[in-house]
Amino acid sequence: MRYKEGIKNILQEENDLIEIVQLVGKDSLGEDQKATLEVAKLIKDEFLQQNAFSEYDYNCPLPKTIGMLKCIITYYECCKRTLAESQKSERKISMAVIEENFNTTVIKDLKEMKFILPDTPEKEIVKQLDDLAEKIENEFRKLLHN
Q: What fold characterizes domain 2-145?
C-alpha cells in the first residue's frame, strides 16, 4: 500500500507541476520538483504502459508489480534524499547530475525491469527486483560520498 500511495502522490504532484512548467518553463522548478517529473515519466513509460502482444508484458504477476513499484519508489526517495543532503554540503548535486551518472546503470535497469517474463518463478522475480532496489540505494550512497 505504501508503494501504491507513493506512486499516486508522484503522479498527482506531476499533474500540478505540469501547469507550472507550461506557464514558466522547466528551469523555474526546484531540483526535487524535477525529480518528481522524471520519476512520473518513468512510471508512465515503464510501469503503466503495457503491450498486450509482448511475451513479457501481457501479464504482470503481483510479485513483479510490487517489486517494480518498490524499485521506482526507492529511486524517487533516493533522488529526493540525495538532492536535499547535497544542498547542505559543498558539492551540489542536481537532477541532471543524477541522470548523467545513472543513465547507463540505474535508470537503464529501471527501464528494463519490465522485461522480466511473467512465467519466471516468484522467488527469482522477488530476488531480482530486491537486488535492483538495493543497487539503487548503493549507487546513490556512492554518488553522495564521492
A: 1.10.1140
